[in-house]
Write a structure and sequence with these properties.
Distance between the termini: 27 Å
Number of strands: 40
Radius of gyration: 24 Å
Strand content: over 45%
Number of helices: 1
Bound molecules: (Z)-L-Arabinonhydroximo-1,4-lactone
Number of domains: 2
Helix content: under 10%
CATH topology of the largest domain: Tachylectin-2, Chain A
Low-confidence stretches: none
Shape: elongated
Oligomer: single chain
Mean pLDDT: 95
């Protein structure tokens, strides 16, 4: 028996979907504009999770270019059938509905390679797959109701998939609008067959404070589905905003080797006020079946912070539940770039990279020279050791960023001292807060050190205080500014993401040949 602490995947791992193959569990989550997309985690016991690869990991598989933050890859579903892994997902461009759509990819090894996308001729989001015992495959998903009776009413549709042609066939059935009258965003549907009965699990009320998990059942796969009288079967909306975990929903179920049932779902942990900078995280909840319905967290009725997993052997030492810690080397599977591969701009070198600056900035929905990892702890130090010599007289920047989006992030960067008469020689280290697309300098300092000597840029998050600091060679650490994290989470900015810590380099639109040496990136959880 092992007791696992929730969340099982801290940081921005929303919309989890899970499947089991023998004694192995695989889990996928949404990644929006980050690349590679759709990380696959593997576990043998639901306790320890290791990232093993991504379903979208090569140029040309999908086009994320031009998609603004919180567009991109939405809620995926992962299933295994007859030796093949299937992953179905939606590519969403929130500003251009003509781009994207629903697609699936397949693989025999969940670590990859995954196929190119097969596009499905149906609109909406949150597609899922159900493999029935008779060999038929059913796609289901969510879209805004075709004939809505209330604002933001959605409908869950289901239709058969011909796996040979990749096309939907036969009649479409609209099976669910949510459990409550006036429910908004009935979404994230998943179908299961348990003891001969079909169950439809779906979230509703939107992926924020009122989020909830509801269930309906039917005798035939296409319905009619009858909602459970006990809906919602799991929510934290009645606990108020002061509670430790909020926004519980978007669940997917798995039956373990020993016959026990489990849900993975998303929720958020606010701190420092009603803000959740780590984003929507993945939690594990036990469930049992009573009178033909699922009971989530029996006897508790909420997401437990500690979960006993009876069949899990003692926790494996060294397996850190997908959490980054210490030096995060250049080959670590957790690194992400934006919208496309980073190999054109970042060449692994020792513990770090050579990072080639490009004219593209972090304010554009493109692929700037950026590499980042999720913020997974409220209290953490990020230390980036750099040798950076931005071209004299230029507006080049090399630095660290706490990133929500193009419009909202905080940067601490090295840039040349201004060429103005009387200005000190050397390099400046500047902290800038870009908030709602408007930039404001939070602080700056000038480094006396030789250009070629390494310096350390730090972000020390302590709750909602993000202290931005620099330490030159032989010098004392200097705090350049402290940014307020409450301005950066989705409560403040909108969107779907938690925060990322990254390194970046830009020449701010001008041609450049500057290459920075990122010697080391350390992610050091504190407290
Ligand atoms: C996801 C959907 C949702 O597709 O958020 O508000 C989307 N609802 O279930 C992105 O995570």
């Amino acid at each position: 028996m092992t007791t696992v602490t929730n969340p099982i995947l801290p940081g921005c791992y929303p919309d989890p979907s899970i499947c089991r193959v023998g004694e192995d569990y695989y889990l996928v989550s949404s990644t929006f504009e980050y690349f590679p997309g759709l990380p696959i985690h593997h576990s043998r016991d639901l306790v320890s999770w290791e990232p093993i690869g991504h379903a979208i990991d090569r140029a040309g598989q999908l086009d994320l270019d031009g998609m603004w933050s919180s567009s991109g890859l939405f809620a995926p579903t992962l299933r295994h059938h007859d030796g093949t892994f299937w992953l179905i997902c939606t590519l969403v461009d929130q500003r251009d509905a003509s781009r994207g759509g629903n697609f699936y990819v397949t693989a025999t090894d969940p670590a990859g390679p995954w196929s190119d996308p097969v596009w499905i001729d149906e609109s909406g989001i949150d597609p899922s797959l159900f493999f029935d015992d008779d060999g038929r495959i059913w796609v289901h998903g969510t879209r805004l109701a075709v004939e809505p009776r209330w604002h933001d009413q959605t409908e869950v549709w289901i239709r058969e998939l011909d796996p040979v042609t990749g096309r939907l066939v036969g009649d479409e059935h609209v099976v669910w609008h949510g459990a409550l009258e006036n429910a908004v965003w009935a979404e994230g549907p998943h179908l299961y067959r348990v003891d001969g009965t079909y169950y439809l699990l779906a979230a509703e009320a939107g992926t924020e404070f009122h989020h909830a998990v509801c269930v309906a059942r039917a005798d035939t796969v296409t319905g009619p589905y009858v909602g459970h009288k006990g809906n919602p079967v799991l929510t934290h909306r009645h606990l108020g905003r002061e509670t430790d975990v909020i926004g519980v929903g978007h669940a997917d179920l798995v039956q373990a080797v020993d016959g026990s049932w489990w849900a993975v779902l998303l929720a958020m942990r606010p701190y420092g006020g009603y803000h959740y900078n780590l984003g929507r995280e993945t939690f594990l909840v036990p469930l049992v079946w009573e009178d033909g319905w699922p009971v989530f967290a029996p006897g508790v009725g909420r997401v437990p912070m500690r979960v006993d997993v009876p069949f899990a052997a003692d926790a494996r030492p060294g397996v850190t539940q997908g959490v980054a810690s210490g030096v995060v080397g250049p080959h670590d599977v957790r690194w992400t770039s934006l919208r496309g591969p980073a190999h054109d701009v970042a060449t692994p070198d020792g513990d770090g990279w050579q990072l080639r600056l490009t004219p593209t900035t972090l304010a554009e929905p493109a692929s700037p020279a950026f590499l980042g990892v999720r913020q997974q702890h409220t209290d953490v130090d990020v230390r980036v050791t750099l040798r950076a010599v931005p071209a004299a007289g230029s507006a080049e920047e090399v630095g660290v960023v706490v990133r929500q989006s193009e419009a909202d992030h905080v940067r601490l960067f090295v840039t040349p001292a201004t060429a103005e008469a009387g200005a000190p020689a050397g390099r400046r280290v500047v902290a800038v807060h870009r908030q709602g697309g408007v930039e404001r300098t939070l602080g700056e300092t000038t480094l006396a050190a030789e250009d070629s000597e390494p310096l350390v840029l730090t972000v020390s998050a302590r709750g909602q205080d993000y202290a931005l600091g620099v330490q030159g060679p032989g010098g004392e650490p200097t705090t350049v500014a402290v940014a307020d994290g409450r301005t950066l989470d989705t409560v403040a900015t909108g969107g779907f993401l938690g925060l990322w810590f990254g390194v970046y380099g830009t020449s701010n639109g001008l041609p450049t040949s500057t290459v920075a040496q990122v010697e080391r990136f350390e992610y050091l959880p504190r407290g």
